[in-house]
Structures
1.
Amino acid sequence: MEKACIDINELVNVFSNTHGSVYQSDKLNCFYVDFGGKFARFNCISLQKIKKVVEQIDIEALLLNTKRADFELVSFNGCEHIYLLNALEIVALKDLLQGAFTMFKLNHLINDCLFRLVY
Amino acid sequence: MKDLMRIKCLISQDIETLLNQQIKKEAHSSSLYLSMASWCNQNGYDFSADYFTKQSEEERMHQLKLFKYVLDMGGNAISPEVTGIKTDFAGFREVFEDALEAEIAITQSFKNLASRCHKEMDFVTMEFLNWFLKEQREEEYKARRALELFEVIGEEGTGRWEIDKHVNKITYSED
Ligand SMILES: [Fe+2]
Ligand SMILES: [Fe+2]
């Protein structure tokens, strides 16, 4: 199913780590996050929002709190997807999203230099 | 691969974050000036109360100007939460000292933003910021002149009453 989606929509792998991948669809102007057993679609705004939510989780506090399990719900108002993740998975998702955004930045620089600055 | 983030938005995430922080600072200034207006009014400094109310409106206008820019460029403008506004002042003079201090902090904040724009070569935002940089000249000038009245007139006798009458007359002209 995921494989089919990647092929049909000619998805580009933006960034991967051991836990998952972020893909971009130039056809549909959107992103797919393959993580935690989910293949979820995001647009620019929702991807930025989910990244912000993940970055705002205080992982240290989560690990030090002995009164509760280290699980956290990751979502935001209006988000179609909900992740129930433990501390390690949160670290992995954070790494995945930050990696993806670094690649976006790099891609932006390349686009600027190669295509936009040609006279 | 398409540059989707750039297609969506002219400004970078870093600049957007800084502009949102500035929106919050302007909102804070607006509330602070209103708080000063309230204190002045309650202590019988009517002209100063009017002056600070006007300043408060101006800061609100600055906030909205930044807000509109972020949205116009395709960014996410965040309506700020404003907390911790000072409501008690030790005296008439302290109000003006705080006002100048607040303006100096705002000027510094705009300098930081401008420096970030130069680093990123975001000349579009830089050009937008020029209006604010120029505005800060006037804002600091007025706050500084108001505070100087305390030296020139002096607080003794009817001094404060005299100072209050003069605050509203401070104007700034470039030439
Ligand atoms: Fe302002
Ligand atoms: Fe101001």
2.
Amino acid sequence: MIYQGKQKIWSDYQKDIPDDHWYYARSCIRQSFFPASEKYFLKICRDLLGKDICDNEHHTTCGGIAYHSDTIPQETAMTIVARQFALMTECGYDNLVVSCITSFGNYTETIETWREFPELEARIRENLWKACRREFKIPKYIAHASDLVYKFRNQIAENAQYRLVDKETGEPLKIVEHIGCHYSKMFPHKGVGGAEYPCVLSGMVESWGGQVIDYPERRHCCGFGFRQYLVKANRGYCVSNTHKKFESMEPYHPDAIITNCPGCPYFLDRWQYVIAEQTGKTYGQNGYGIPVFTYEELAGLVLGENPWDLGLQVHQVAVEPFLDKIGIEYKPSEKYLGLNKEDLLRPEMPQVLKCH
Amino acid sequence: MLEIGKKTETCIVTTKLYDELCKDYRFREGLKACINCGTCTAICPAAEFYRYDPRKIVDTVQRKDDSEIEALLRSETIWYCGECMSCMTRCPRSNAPGKVIMALRNLSVKLGYFTESERGRQIYPLTEAINRNILEYGYCVYPDTFRFEDHPESGPVWKWHLEHKEASYARMGANYKGKGPGALRQIAPEDMSELKAIFDVSGGTERTALVEEFSRKKAEEMGMSMEEYRRHTFEHCSDIHFNND
Ligand code: SF4
Ligand code: SF4
């Protein structure tokens, strides 16, 4: 198709995401904090959309957190990445879909750097052969898992049981989206909508009936900062950045936040708890926080999945006010039960932040 | 270990640092030509919080003055960046101050200068925790080493989760420590050996040992056992870092 005028400009920000046949690379952080999100991503892709996605047990961390915490040399990070590519190649796939923004940045940076410095690619190939006796093809396409959910957002909407709409008023719910720095700040042309108009999450929100909120600090970092969070002494940096975002979004009264990176939802959720306990301030209504979701969780909710199967019980900010606004059914008494309904007791309640 | 690291006292080092930086691909990609516009500083989350100015750092290395570069490598300054790369999007000259920082940190570690600053010394607890997670479990972050005492901000809900890890992960559909694919599966020994071999051939093992060696020396100098030093560098925060202006 030949685009002209504004259409042409906009087409530069679009990604031509392949339709099928993906090799999946998991995320250390998403697996640790939101494992159900990865499960539901695969379930949606395979069962609802009928896609072929390979989930290979032999892959490992991509090393991205170590790389950006400066604990491994660039060559080590790249050789780990090369091994992931080799596993994908051996399984017969060309398209890599990754579950983490740090990984997405890491894989993309590796390929872009090799393009500029082919001698480095040659050295990494040698490293990989020496260490693992493996060879690889560079993926034809690298997507973040949210790119696929974005691509198929309308199919998800067609199958949805709920919409992001207030059941009392019929008004769209107000949603803040946070795409995560390494999605499109490093290589803007790799993200849907680029760094200027990232629409990977806002597209989902609108398709599922919600309204996206624009606010001054929309693109500000969540404050992870790698070493700034991973070392206890530095965490003031993280909470200050999150605080800045919440102060900026507060006047718009968001009903929820949707996130792209697996780290951001953890930070945006937990720092609300810390801010509440330290200062007494809460950002939701009636002493609650603003619930923060991964895109898989939000997709699962509109598709009618049980919130506790989606893992929403391990959020610190209570999700119930949001579920109630939409009218999503759930059993409060089953929130903290095990898989076979065994009693796992209950978490203590925070002193200030209202929870269930 | 780099030869020049041993020769700092005799100042032979002073013509070499810029050349060393140029060997780092991140430096070559991250610094083309800086026009000192300050856009990076304006967008930088670290510059707002810390006494930190990426523009000045890029300008300093651009001047190729090795004594100034050496001062940077020994300073607190280079450890304030959060590597968010917000600067990379906005620089009108396609520089990436965050990448320049990565190269500076890399060199500071190679030369052992990192132990001369409070924030630099944190490389030890970071390396110890993350590289161990990678080599023991195959994950950068792993629930068994994520201790609630070190992460009170993870909240009472995560304390509860960690106390019921097996059951809670099962409820969320994870394959925690299980065989085959899935979230938090146990990564097979043959895959773990490959990771170890990758560390060996690509400088990861050498880097871990170097950090340990320099940190051990520093711990001795500070009169601490390695465990005391690890805890101290992980927890201690003096008030010299913040941008209170
Ligand atoms: S990468 Fe570092 S220097 Fe660049 S904006 Fe982020 S914190 Fe600032
Ligand atoms: S934005 Fe780029 S050109 Fe401007 S001061 Fe920063 S590095 Fe230099």
